[in-house]
Design goal:
The protein is of the alpha+beta class and 160 residues long. The protein has five helices and five strands; from the N terminus they run E-H-H-E-E-E-H-E-H-H. It has helices at 10-23, 34-42, 95-110, 124-132, 148-156; strands spanning 2-4, 49-54, 60-71, 76-86, 115-117.
Length: 160
């Protein structure tokens, strides 16, 4: 079953974010706190949304955390999937596909024209799933990121 996350889900989302970071060999980068996730998902002005995948007994099997983006070329919103995670003992049970299906349904129902995400190049099981669902890599684009000192330095600069 896929359902919208509730404030009571924040601790399990936080735990799964950390599990995902460990799987991606980047646990040291997972700095978000439960309070930050709560504010982002359920604060006065939510910036992100989450779906929870549950087993038949109600056990959390995985989650999808997403936010809206906007295409100036298409003139409408889309969804950017920040995190998709299924717990290791639940993989192969259809939860990842179910989460992506719910995201696609949300796009269709709301008139959004894109569902986008990134995947690590070495994550072959996920890549196989995505391609089996019809997703295609955007090889002509390179992702750039500013963080930490570089972000602070640029943010402190004043345009001429």
């Amino acid at each position: 079953m896929i359902r919208n996350a509730t404030p009571a889900d924040v601790p399990v989302i936080h735990a799964m974010v950390r599990e995902l970071a460990e799987y991606e060999k980047a646990l040291h980068e997972a700095q978000a706190t439960e309070a930050q996730l709560h504010e982002a998902l359920f604060g006065e002005r939510p910036a992100a949304y989450a779906f929870i995948a549950e087993t038949e007994t109600g056990e959390p099997a995985g989650f999808a955390l997403w936010f809206l983006n906007f295409s100036t070329w298409r003139g409408v919103h889309g969804i950017y999937l920040e995190d998709l995670y299924v717990r290791p003992d639940k993989r192969g049970g259809g939860y990842g596909k179910a989460l992506l299906t719910e995201l696609a349904r949300t796009c269709v129902d709301r008139g959004y024209q894109r569902l986008e995400w990134s995947v690590l190049n070495w994550n072959e099981p996920s890549i196989r799933l995505y391609e089996a669902l019809g997703a295609r890599p955007q090889d002509e684009w390179t992702v750039y990121r500013l963080t930490d000192g570089a972000l602070a330095e640029l943010g402190a600069a004043r345009p001429a």
